[in-house]
Amino acid sequence: MPVLGIDIGDGNATVATISKGAIDVVLNEVSQRYTPVCASFTQKRRLFGDQATPQMISNYRNSCRNMMSLLGRTIGGHHDLAVDPMDDFFSPNGISQCSNGYVGYNCAITPEPYDVTKVLAGYLGFLSSMAEKYTMLPCKEVVLACPGWYTDVQKEMLRIAATAAGLSCLNVIDECTAMALDYGVYRVKQLSDDKPTTVALVMVGHSHASAAVCDFYQNRVEVLSHVSRRDIGGRNLDHMLMAHMAKEFEKYGCNPLESRKVRLKLEAVAIKTKRVLSANSESGYSAECLMEENDLHGSITREEFEAMCKEEFLPNLTEMLMECVNLSGKPVGEISCVEIAGGVTRIPCVQQTIHSIFGLQLSRTLNSDECIARGCVLDAAMRSISYRVRKYLAVERLTRPLTYACIQGGDISQLPSAETVEVLPANSTKGAPIVTKMAISGPMVIVASRGNPRDTNDPHFLQAIEVVKQISPTEAEGVATISACFDENGDFCFTGVEGHEFVVIQKKPVLDVEEYAKFEAEARSQDAIENERLHTLNDFETLIYSVKEKMQGSHREFVAPDNVVAMDQELNKWSDWLYDNYEATLDVLKESLNSLLSHWSPVEHLYRVHKAKQDELGNFLSNLRAKYNLCREDSPMWYGAPEEDRLDFARRILAFEEKIRVQLEEENSIPRHEKPLFTMDQLNTELRQITSDIDEFCRRMRVQSERRKEEEMAAQAQSEPAEPAEPAEPDVSVEEPAEEISIFVFSLCCASSRFFYRAQRSDLRRKPSLLRDLYVQGVLRNAVRTVFICGCVTAGVYALHEARQMQQKAIVQEERYGKPQLGGPFTLVDQTGRERSLSDFRGKLVLIYFGFANCPDICPVEMEKQNMVTELLEKRFGPVLQPLFITVDPKRDSVEKLASYAKAYHPRLIALTGNNDRIRDVAKKFRVYYNQGITATDEDYLIDHSIIHYLLDENGEFLEFYSKNASAKEIADDIAKIVQKRNIKP
């Protein structure tokens, strides 16, 4: 099952998977590698991605975006979760607080704010469906990327959204960690296991920026520092340009930034201007009737744009990068490389700022838009049981200090006044075990948090345990060691309390997973119904206009004159009905569509029957004539059948052909709206019956031929006088002693076993004897066991020898009886001009087909069949089969023409030609019938020829032939048995 790595930004999302051992980015419905992150709702369905993009302005009151920035955020409350003014500014419809305490979208279709988690769950389901269509396999295992500033609550809500969408979330990792995985996994050979390679990773995206300094080793990456900020991103630059453009409307007394709909139009202009300025020194911008019938026109230079960036954006970026370098504890000189990603890093002034901090040339060896998704899918492959991938660990650091709060007595209500202790400072590694000694005198509650441990609602809350009782003495009386760690997913957990029993205090879930999963399932079902309804509506409307057009054109002759008026009235009726019932339910639309089809289907059937005759009847008659000629000529497939029997089939085919021509003449004299005298399906059915009868007849003749040859060989053996005895051959001299030895050893084993059994009986043990003494001492017992084992080994060797001899005899007998004498040496020229003989292909099976390059129908089909047989066998055994094409038209099939012809088929196909005498000679050896048919000109003619594939063994001897009715799979399966039986190697 494919795994997915999903990077959802505020602008675009990228989905990566693994296909054929390599990372592949999923293409969406419009064949793009990225998908817009937006959603638009109607009363009956939800739209996501490219379908929702056109609705962002026309249906802005019910459109949503920036899900990752708003997930788990609140209005007021904790400062790490409080929404920024920028979040509300770029929301198409504004944001409000939902009943669960988190923000939602003010959609017009619902009285309550639309929960961001529900929108994100729908979008994740949409991405999953998109990936399943791309891979044509179910995609349920996923690793998601999140911004570095996400709290533990927000990560949990992201997992809930994935679960509600029907996905199995294997992990949620920071964006910089995903970048580090993508960088390190593909550079393992360049890295050392002892000396680290220090690399700085900088990502500036649409709504936030992140930076990390990492030490890369061959088997792991250690994140030395990681900083992320929400006030540095592409949308901050968009807001800056929008404010600059809005100043032009002060003279009109209006402000475009006050209207959400106008704001969306202005944002599109600002984004385009920003992109132009990244590559040009100046950019103009314009928008007609932007606000109150006033147009927007203006221009801006790159110098002006960079001056605006220097006011706030670039200083904030510099501050973030310096903080990251300082936290890493390494001087800038030890950083060997700076990798940048994100769309904003394409802006020249941003690149100059990053360069000024590190003093290094910026590197773009990572795919700027896809590296995070690639890192996520690598992490997913390492965690999934469906893949075997070399582990590459990512050891992260704490972005905030780890603190414990301790409550003596175990009363959780006393948490606000609990004592706190800092266990790990900020920027400590998560990879090492966490060991803390604490005084414990009785029941106690311990709370771990990366924020305020006295507040259980803190977004950085990790886990709480209750120490119940002491069960064993501790190393120091009254002091216990508290053990904890961060697991492979980066989640904190207590692992033990020395000498004490403890229980984990279950925290109330952030959200009800079942409720969100039920909502998503119902919404997805409603989406499917509405999508099907719209498709049916479109099909209905298309059918009405299509029928009207066909009745005036291609189908006019197939409608009875009496029904023309009635059909027109029926179409007008349904056209009016469709206009008045555009919101009809799916069942009503299907019923109405079927009603119209019931009137039109007979006409369409008559047209298709007539069209099929026009397209297929000519080829059908040609194939029929070829089969007729095959019945007239004696070929290997008949196995010496009497001529009269073959001619019976020929006369049957001739009568069938005459019947078709008579019916065709009669049909030309009747109107086309009447029932046809025959259809191509009927003709094909009758031809299949004739072919089946011929195959059955040939099978019986083959059995008779084999039986006849066996009788002749037996009679010949009886009539020959007995030859005098000759010295035994080596294989016989080996065989007879083997049989005698095996019989002797087997008899000895039986006797020894009998004695061994009797020796154990009590009556034998009561009688003192030499045998009893030997048995008690173990001498005789060991001797008997040794003889018995030797006998078993000898018998096994003899049985294996007999099996091999029987198998060899069977192969020789199969080659000696039942095969017609076909084939023989030949020398022809291949498509490269090189002379080829049959001896060139020794060691491989050879599949030969005789045809000609100008064949319009049969040869291309048979050559494609040969191509499929070769590919099927290559997948199983390798190149054990050599495909050959021998032309029966040497006049036109030159070396150059065959070179072009062979390119259309298997790369190992060898096409052979020669002069007329050589072609005639090789055709005679294989009993191939071919004859030039009716000619239009000297260069425009067809050739009747046998339609048979010939299989030769690795020594060039004839093995089998396959007629036109044999499918590629049947031929491949038959040859596969021969390969296995003969143990043929490529």
Structure characteristics:
single chain; 986 residues; alpha+beta; Nucleotidyltransferase, domain 5; Substrate Binding Domain Of Dnak, Chain:A, Domain 2; 6 domains; 7-stranded mixed sheet; 6-stranded mixed sheet; 21% strand
Summarize the SSE layout with pairings:
Blueprint: E1 3-8, E2 12-19, E3 22-25, E4 35-36, E5 38-41, E6 46-48, H1 55-58, E7 63-65, H2 67-70, H3 85-89, E8 95-97, E9 103-105, E10 114-115, H4 116-135, E11 141-146, H5 152-164, E12 168-174, H6 175-185, E13 197-204, E14 209-216, E15 220-229, H7 234-246, H8 260-279, E16 282-291, E17 294-301, H9 302-311, H10 313-328, E18 337-341, H11 348-358, E19 362-363, H12 371-383, E20 393-395, E21 402-408, E22 419-424, E23 434-439, E24 444-449, E25 461-470, E26 479-486, E27 492-497, E28 500-504, H13 513-552, H14 564-580, H15 586-632, H16 643-667, H17 680-719, H18 730-759, H19 762-766, H20 770-777, H21 779-816, E29 827-830, E30 835-837, E31 845-851, H22 858-877, E32 881-887, H23 895-902, E33 910-913, H24 916-925, E34 930-935, E35 941-945, E36 949-952, E37 958-962, H25 968-982
Parallel strand pairs: 1-11, 11-12, 13-18, 15-20, 18-19, 31-32, 32-33
Antiparallel strand pairs: 1-2, 2-3, 2-4, 5-6, 5-7, 8-9, 9-10, 13-14, 14-15, 16-17, 21-22, 21-24, 23-26, 24-25, 25-28, 26-27, 29-30, 29-33, 31-36, 34-35, 36-37
Helix pairs in contact: 4-5, 4-13, 5-13, 6-12, 7-8, 10-11, 13-14, 13-15, 14-15, 15-16, 18-21, 22-25
Helix/sheet category: alpha+beta
Which stretches of 5+ consecutive residues score pLDDT under 50? 722-777, 810-818
Amino-to-carboxy terminus distance: 32 Å
CATH architecture of the largest domain: 2-Layer Sandwich
Number of strands: 37
Number of helices: 25
The residue fraction in helices comes out at 40-55%
The portion of residues forming beta strands comes to: 15-25%
Largest sheet descriptor: 7 strands, mixed
Radius of gyration: 42 Å
**What is the CATH third-level topology name of the largest domain?**
Nucleotidyltransferase, domain 5
Shape annotation:
globular
CATH class of the largest domain: Alpha Beta
